[in-house]
Each structure stands twice: as C-alpha cells, then as structure tokens.
Amino acid sequence: MEKRFYEMGKSGLKEQTRQIPGIRVHPLFQSRVYLITTREDPLAKQNRVTQEDLYGRTLMVGGRSPPALKAVQHRLTATGKVSYFNSSDHDTTLTNVAAGRGVCLAPGFLNDHSNQFAWIPYDCPETFSCVLCTHKTDNRPGLTAFLKTLIQLYIDAVAFPL
Looking at the 3D structure of the chain, how many domains does it have? Predict the structure, then answer.
C-alpha cells in the first residue's frame, strides 16, 4: 500500500505540504469518494454507485470541498442531469441528507461509522491522500514504532481500506 500511495499521490502531497517547513510526511492511506444517503435510500443497497445512478437526484456541493472532490462534483453537475445546491459545511450537509433534501459525495475519512447514514463507494478515480506529518528531526524510537504500527494497520485494512 505504501508504494501505491506514493505512486498515486506523491506530487499532490508535495504541493499540499511544501509551505510547511521542517516536516516529514508519512503516507498512511488513500481515501476514496463515497456517496452519503439515508439508510432507506434505494442507492444504499448498492455496493458501488456510478454517475448515472445519480441522474435525477439532488446533490449537495460545498465551496470548502478539496480540489479532488470539486472535480468529481463538477463532472457530475456538468452533465445537467442532477440538481444541486451549496451546503456550507459537512455537518449542515449531513443534516440535509437526514432531512431527505439530497445526497452528498464526501471523502471516506469523514465517515464516523455511526451507521446513521449509508456510505456507498462512488465510482471515480479520485482519492484523498491521508498522511501524518512529524517534525523532520524527530527520530524518537517511540515515534518510529508508532508509525510502523499505524502504517501496518492501514496496510492490513483494519482502519480505512481503499
């Protein structure tokens, strides 16, 4: 997983962290895009959702969305086959999903695993690089052991599988 992570996201990581001096970036995992619906929504029964599955639906989009998510949202709304409205933040979006006002696309790392909503993998190539940043000179054995354990958990898909 670590090698694949670098292949998929190394340039994006450098861009996102280049303004932070004196850090070391430790890749943890790639998080995919998920569709968030109510548990009663017919799409909640699917193993994967495609763009076509959302035609005729209402999508919530946010101005604070990361660039990868904005690209997915734009591709979907540009079809003209979905309605959409802006939502100010993730909590407001979840409230609107619960109220049946629409559905949302979000990074999987936002899933709180409360089972209040259905999180269905969305079929798209975009992912989000999830990393841990440490001070470049921090070489404590405890930190090294912690990173090794944490990375192994993600490789074994105990935490957030891709």
Answer: 1
